Amino acid sequence: MAARAIYAPLVCTAALLLAFVVSPSAGLSLDTVREFLTREEDTIVFSLIERARYPLNRPAYDPIHLGDGAGPGRRLNASFAELFIRESEAVQSKAGRYQSLQEIPFFAYRVPFTLAPPYNFTRELYPAAAFVNVNDAIWSMYFNELLPLLAKNGDDGNYAVTVDSDLACLQVLSRRINYGRYVAEVKFRGDQQTYTSLIQAKDRDSLMKLLTSEAQEDVVKRRIEKKATVFGQSITSDGPIKTGVNNSSGTNFKVDPSVVYKLYDQWVIPLTKQVEVEYLLHRLD
Prior knowledge:
Elements: H1 2-22, H2 30-52, E1 63-65, E2 77-79, H3 80-94, H4 135-150, H5 159-178, H6 180-190, H7 192-200, H8 204-211, H9 214-231, E3 235-236, E4 239-240, H10 257-281
Antiparallel strand pairs: 1-2, 3-4
Helix pairs in contact: 2-5, 2-9, 3-5, 4-5, 4-10, 5-10, 6-7, 6-10, 8-10, 9-10
């Protein structure tokens, strides 16, 4: 009886461990990862098109004085854009958006409960590495590098809808780039011996080289440029206005395809690989 009493919890513990290790992989594969990343391209292009509808609206990004609400002797300063995104994420956090590991907020929140119905999200990521993200870099890149390329100079006063479209762009870029964690997990499972030796040696350069496929990256960049060309055409009753990727003016596109190409070439793909390397370096923790 004593032996069975000890054996039973051991079996339960082993079963739980197996459930954690084995079951997530059933839904995570190179095919599902590629499908997700390809579908995110559509969302990214449409989000950029929506943001390009509005001018830059610079006052939305200038620091504003909020008074002394931070306490005696302290003054709060933030832009309207930051405040809007903070408050929007807080509401979405209460609604359970960030229960899924695919979604990572730009600002941390402690939410004791959510209003959303409970759902048991699968945990495909290795727990000790799931925290890896580059949201700070995405935030800086978007506002300092991408936005001036995306929006024309001007001010129409539509600050709320403008920043709301910024938030949509930030969220899909964060989801797409930080999905590198899932890419790294799939690749690790496919060749554990090679990756384990490089991780143990903390060989960042070799990991980056192993993760890089320039031919595949070129396919992705050309595809996203083509999608921007197709989705960004102006449609008339007679059909789409004839345009091409090499159109010198770019005025017929709702978003310049070359900007979308540059987004992937200079930021999305490099940042995704940075996430992959950082995830792998914590994969054996």
